[in-house]
Structure formats: structure tokens, C-alpha cells
């Protein structure tokens, strides 16, 4: 098991293995707002103010691989299926980033903004496909794909949705409204 957790002053990476003591590695970083662990356990993404950092997870701990500074702080980040595509949500909308090979190894690079993708309250990613959706407070759902630009599907679900998630198979959407699931 690999666990990453942030406090106001540091990130702690813990490795838990059966019949062995936990191994903890700590990195001092201030004001981490969001951490994402890649599904393969090899990368850790951290959002702190207007800085996005990418660490390699090695047997010795965390090794800083990339650092991106944005003019305005992003609202949040999300990973698409497989963890190779990073979505960055900011005031302009939702942008796609992924690793590009270079002489010094792979580095995270901006690819494009998704046409029509707004920085809505809820951003949902699908577990098995490179698909994501935005859900506005008004209940307006918009579905996007990393392979195509623009809205693939839109539907009005009604206001008051506080949380949502794609079903495990990606064939449905579970929403929470007024403390009830639909």
C-alpha cells in the first residue's frame, strides 16, 4: 500500500507491506491544497498555491521531477484513466497536460484547453476511459473526452447536486442531492 498525505507544512509518503514495518518519507512543502497519486504508484502530483509539482516515487522516497508555476492558482487537478493525463481546472476552463519525452526524461507539458469546458463546482473522471464531466450548480452536465475537443454530450439534471461519481463500469452516474443518492 502506498499512502500520501499532506499537512500544512509537509507531505508524508508511507509504504505499508504485509509483515513489515511501515516506511515513511517526508518532504517539507507549505500549503499543499491537493495531492493526487498516479494509479501505478510511480508519481505524486501536488498543488500548492500557483505551483504544481510532480514527484517520482522511488525506493528512497520522493524526488522532485517537475514544477509548473501558473499565473493564477488552479482550482484543482484530476487524473484521467491510467493516470497519464492530468486535468488542470482554472479560471479559463479545463486544460489537458501530459508527459512529453525530452533529453532529461519525461516532463509535464500543457497540451490544450477543452472547448466549452468550464471550471464548474464538480469535475468527475471516469475510471476506465479518458472521459470526464463537469457538473454546474444549476445541474448542467457536460461530458468530454481527451480524444476529442468540445462537448460530447450535455444534459440538464436539475439544481441542488452536491456530489457525483461515475459508476464503476462507467455506464451510469450516481448523484447526491439533499442527502439522497440517485
Would you kindly provide a written description of the structure presented here, covering whatever features stand out?
There is one protein chain. With 182 residues, the chain is mainly β. It contains no helices and 18 strands. The strands form 5 sheets. A 4-stranded antiparallel β-sheet has the order 4-5-6-7, with no helix packed on it. The protein is globular. It starts with a strand and ends with a strand. The model has no long low-confidence stretch (mean pLDDT 90).
In sequence order, what are the helices and strands, one letter per element?
Answer: EEEEEEEEEEEEEEEEEE
> Strand order across the biggest sheet?
4-5-6-7
Strand content: over 45%
Largest sheet data: 4 strands, antiparallel
Q: How many individual β-strands?
A: 18
Number of distinct helices: 0
The gross shape turns out to be globular
Distance between the termini: 32 Å
Mean pLDDT rating: 90
Secondary structure layout plus pairing:
Layout: E1 2-6, E2 10-15, E3 23-28, E4 34-37, E5 43-48, E6 51-58, E7 61-69, E8 76-79, E9 85-90, E10 93-100, E11 107-113, E12 122-125, E13 131-135, E14 140-145, E15 148-156, E16 161-166, E17 173-177, E18 180-181
Antiparallel strand pairs: 1-2, 2-3, 4-5, 5-6, 6-7, 8-9, 9-10, 10-11, 12-13, 13-14, 14-15, 16-17, 17-18
Keywords:
182 residues, 4-stranded antiparallel sheet, 0% helix
Brief digest:
The chain is an all-beta fold and 182 residues long. It has no helices and 18 strands. It has strands at residues 2-6, 10-15, 23-28, 34-37, 43-48, 51-58, 61-69, 76-79, 85-90, 93-100, 107-113, 122-125, 131-135, 140-145, 148-156, 161-166, 173-177, 180-181.
Amino acid at each position: 500500500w502506498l499512502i500520501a498525505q499532506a499537512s500544512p507544512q509537509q507531505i508524508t509518503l508511507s509504504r505499508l507491506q504485509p509483515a513489515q514495518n511501515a516506511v515513511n518519507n517526508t518532504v517539507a512543502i507549505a500549503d499543499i491544497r491537493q495531492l493526487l497519486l498516479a494509479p501505478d504508484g510511480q508519481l505524486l502530483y501536488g498543488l500548492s498555491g500557483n505551483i504544481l509539482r510532480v514527484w517520482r516515487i522511488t525506493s528512497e522516497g520522493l524526488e522532485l521531477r517537475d514544477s509548473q508555476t501558473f499565473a493564477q492558482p488552479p482550482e484543482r487537478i484530476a487524473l484521467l484513466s491510467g493516470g497519464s493525463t492530468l486535468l488542470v481546472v482554472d479560471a479559463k476552463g479545463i486544460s489537458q497536460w501530459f508527459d512529453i519525452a525530452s533529453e532529461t526524461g519525461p516532463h509535464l507539458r500543457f497540451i490544450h484547453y477543452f472547448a466549452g469546458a468550464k471550471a464548474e463546482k464538480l469535475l468527475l473522471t471516469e475510471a476506465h476511459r479518458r472521459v470526464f464531466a463537469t457538473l454546474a450548480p444549476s445541474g448542467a452536465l457536460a461530458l468530454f473526452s481527451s480524444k476529442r475537443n468540445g462537448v460530447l454530450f450535455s444534459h440538464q439534471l436539475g439544481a441542488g447536486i452536491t456530489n457525483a461519481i461515475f459508476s464503476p463500469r462507467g455506464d451510469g452516474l450516481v448523484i447526491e442531492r439533499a442527502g439522497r443518492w440517485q
